[in-house]
Design goal:
Helix content: over 70%
Keywords: Cell membrane, Membrane, Transmembrane, Transmembrane helix, Transport
Subcellular location: Cell membrane
Number of domains: 2
Order of helices and strands: HHHHHHHHHHHHH
GO biological process, one term: transmembrane transport
CATH architecture of the largest domain: Orthogonal Bundle
Shape: globular
Membrane topology: Multi-pass membrane protein
CATH superfamily of the largest domain: MetI-like
Radius of gyration: 25 Å
CATH class of the largest domain: Mainly Alpha
Strand content: under 5%
Number of helices: 13
Organism: Aerophobetes bacterium
């Protein structure tokens, strides 16, 4: 019961507060822009040579304002925003009218979830193990590895994506240049389709894993070096406990705790990196959908993806927070 009061409830309150502020920001920020999306849409129609009679212009403007959720006062728009949010109705996509925004996001979401979940888990495990071993077993190889990580760590996701694309797509053409599946191939549950999907997802996944490992490797190494100086580790070494047992059972296991917290803090960057990587590789996830929405000025779709992003990141961080007591038993009994 103490766990619920002192740990669970405060985090749930924090979660709903973050959601409220984040979603309010999604509502407010586009309205602070000097551009009116309705006027931009009308101008776009006229650019393509469409003639709009003056008597129909007002009706079109009112229709577009209703579709964009821009009709009425600011308070009415804000109320309508939350009503649409709770019903999951973000209106139709204007670029792919009349397909609903929620349907488009749902069709692209599995690609992003698959890519993001696998790369996040793999990069975290690799960083924890390699960083932990490099922090405990000091040597020339650990210094060389540290130097390599120092070179990779400042590289943004999109630059790393381009490097992987050039190297593994052109110089050594091992993987497809982009897409989620081969051209003309339909999804079906068979080994050939799964192999094709994995082949197309390798370069985006490799990009995220390389950058993710570089971010977390040095943190794990420094934490391990700090834990190694603890009295219980020195005592275990003095009593002749095997180095392998000390490294994995005493040091890396305890060093994992702050790494779980760090993963929660970095998840927003990892999520944004996944979206950018999808754009580079034309991977059919939410990131590519967002890019196309921005290019085509699809206001409803942009708003829907931003709302989804806020909810997804906040929920993932809450999940990691609730997972932390399973890793650190001390929290459960406070």
């Amino acid at each position: 019961m103490a766990f619920v009061k002192t740990y669970l409830i405060p985090r749930l309150i924090h979660y709903f507060l973050v959601l409220f502020l984040g979603l309010t920001a999604v509502f407010v920020l586009p309205r602070l822009m000097p551009l009116d999306p309705v006027e931009e849409q009308i101008a776009q129609y006229q650019t393509f040579g469409a003639y709009i009679p003056p008597e129909q212009l007002e009706q079109i403007i009112n229709t577009l304002r209703e579709l964009y959720g821009l009709k009425g006062t600011l308070l009415q728009q804000y109320t309508g925003f939350w009503r649409r949010l709770f019903t999951g109705d973000f209106g139709p996509s204007l670029a792919q009218y009349p397909t609903p925004v929620s349907e488009l996001i749902a069709s692209h979401l599995p690609w992003t979830i698959g890519l993001l979940s696998l790369t996040t888990v793999f990069s975290w495990i690799i960083a924890v193990l390699v960083g932990g071993i490099a922090g405990y077993y000091r040597g020339r190889w650990a210094e060389i590895l540290d130097d390599i990580v120092m070179l990779i760590r400042p590289i943004p996701y999109y630059i790393m994506a381009i490097i992987c694309l050039i190297f593994f797509g052109y110089i050594i053409p091992l993987f497809p240049l982009g897409g989620g599946m081969g051209i003309g191939r339909e999804f079906s549950f068979n080994l050939e389709t799964i192999r094709n999907i994995l082949l197309h997802g390798t370069l985006p996944a490799l990009t995220l894993i390389i950058v993710g490992v570089a971010w977390q490797f040095q943190s794990m190494k420094l934490i391990v070096q700090s834990v190694r100086a603890e009295d219980y580790v020195r005592y275990a070494e003095a009593t002749g406990v095997k180095k392998r047992i000390i490294a994995f059972r005493y040091i890396i296991r305890n060093a994992m705790l702050p790494m779980v917290t760090q993963l929660g803090l970095q998840f927003g960057f990892i999520f944004s990196g996944a979206l950018i990587t999808e754009m580079v590789f034309t991977y059919p996830g939410v990131g590519l959908l967002l890019y196309n929405a921005v290019v085509k000025a699809d206001y409803n779709l942009i708003m829907g993806i931003l709302v989804f992003s806020v909810v997804a990141v906040a929920t993932s961080i809450l999940f990691l927070d609730l997972l932390y007591p399973l890793v650190d038993p001390r929290i459960r009994y406070k």
